Amino acid sequence: MGANRREQTTRCTRRKAHALLAATVHTVRLIAPILALVLALLAALSFDAPLPPADLVIVERSDCFTLDPQRMSYQHELRRARVLFEGLVNLRASDCAIIPGVAERWEVSSDGLVYTFYLRADAKWSNGEPVTSHDFAYAWRRAILPDTAADYSGLFLSIRGAKRFFEARSAQLITLAKGCDAQIAADAWSATETDFRRNVGINTPDDHTFIVSLDHPVHYFLDLCAFPCFSPVPAATVEQFVSLDPQSGRVSQRHGWTKPGAIVTNGAYVPTVWRYKRDMRLEQNPYYWNQSAVRAKSIDCRTIENANTAVLSYESGAADWLTDLGPEYKTEMLAQRRTYLERFKGDVDAGLAHGELLDEIVGALPPPRSGERRDLRGFDAFGTDFFSFNCRDAMPGGAVNVFHDKRVRRAFALAVDKQALIDRVTRLGERVASTLVPPGSITDYPIVEGLGYDSTRARAELAAAGYEDRDGDGIVENAKGEKFPTVDILYSTASPRYQNLAMAMRDMWRRELRVAAECRGKDAKLYKEDLKKGNFMIARGGWYGDYGDPTTWLDLQRTGNGNNDRGYSNPEFDAMLDAADAELDPKARLAKLAACEKWLFTEESPLLPLCNYVTVYMYDPSKVTGMTDHPRLEQDLSILTRRTQQATP
Fold this sequence. Notes:
Elements: H1 2-47, E1 56-60, H2 75-84, E2 89-91, E3 98-100, E4 103-108, E5 114-119, H3 133-144, H4 162-177, H5 182-199, E6 202-206, E7 209-213, H6 221-225, H7 235-238, E8 242-244, E9 251-253, E10 269-275, E11 279-284, E12 298-303, H8 307-315, E13 321-322, H9 330-343, H10 345-353, H11 358-363, E14 377-389, H12 406-414, H13 418-426, H14 455-464, E15 487-492, H15 496-513, E16 517-522, H16 524-533, E17 538-544, H17 551-554, H18 571-582, H19 586-604, E18 607-617, E19 624-625, E20 641-642
Parallel strand pairs: 1-12, 1-13, 15-16, 15-17
Antiparallel strand pairs: 2-3, 4-5, 5-7, 6-7, 8-9, 10-11, 11-12, 14-17, 14-18, 19-20
Helix pairs in contact: 4-5, 12-14, 18-19
């Protein structure tokens, strides 16, 4: 009996154990997905943990599309590029003078065709490897290659043999596209490498000497060398992400080398974190040769697309600098700054008279009162807002283009009261512009004046072109009684500014010239398509200079220039630019360019300059220092700092 009880007890215990095990397994199965989710969330949080506070926080409206210096092109990207990659020379932020970069010195031949750069021995990549002349040659070759489709390839084509090399490789790629395999692609690429090494004017006799030979003198070549697309890249690192496409024969560049953890830089900073459209952390490059000049040890670059949210972020103390103050109410904010400065006008005027910088003066003044501000500032920028005239022989479809006649273009230019546009429409206090080059932005370049506001002369110019109100109906006609075509004014809907300007000018032209005019807004993509096709009569435009020479503006009007959306072509103008290019004396050359610009905007008027852009920053000069007010606004992130950190070595 005892044995049977023990056996029954054992069986009962086993049944309970099996039941408990089954229940446990069932429970685990139920909660397993929850446990997995919790573990995934914990892992995500560990990767998305808040970054430690940075020495400086800036807010941008958009993120960088790439960190490849040969492909970066937007203003905020170029600002970032300048502190990640260092070229042969740098621009000093305060006055945009050329100063040494990786090259500690250089020589220029007497005919201006050969530049010899001597690289400093202590220039290193962020992995500790030396920066060599071969890194520059490699970077410049990839910028010139049509395979990479870099926006600024054209800036390299003044190098001896570069244009022919570009064209030869382009033709080769067209041929390869018709039939190619891995071996054909490899042979073609080997021939391309040999062609570049033998026939393009870039030589590297040793690791620290870089020689460039030009087809013709380029008086601003050193300024070009400071542009980010002329920066070196680490050939050994980049090549790990390069392959040949066996079907097209093209060099295929994967962009993994630009990601934190892989990227190698030679500038003041290295990106250590990049969470796209959120933030990027820049940390000081421990191998940068000029570390003593770097102020902030770390910079947090945050992306906040919503303009109002960006302002709220700044107001909460989460940011030191908003690089582009977007809200429409910035005009009221600027008025509050003017009120503040007016209260201390005597102090400001006295400081400026003694050569002090405006930010230093304002930063030392007492705090603003209610209704005043000092934490934003409008800067005259290296850009000009304009509307383009369609200068082509005919409109798409063959219709007559009245704006092919320069008298009509002059009439429309003379009929615009630009000061009224600034006072009532843009309301940012911009400078009226009658030409393209912003005054004072280029050393030794004269101030050039174009056509001003003159409604009487505007009507006379239109009459000279054959259009008058002959029947008293309020609309001008030609001698055949044909009314002036309804003027099509194209603008991008990307900003209310463009629409407001278009509508204000429409009303001016209706009133002053007695023409019919209508505005046509399109989204950015469709607007650009119409612009390139010439499907407009007048269209919104604008340009920021790429380098410190008048040709960054005047070349826009050259026959065949890729940015000549107006279709303007005049051999006389092209010849004037060529004559200036051939002038070896720097001041005489600038005088010729000034004469060329004056002729362009008093006689030809291919476009209608309105004003020089104003860029509005939000920062407090009592807390942040290092900002430049030079018109080119080449802000150097490496010298910006909070005032409490200035004493930190």
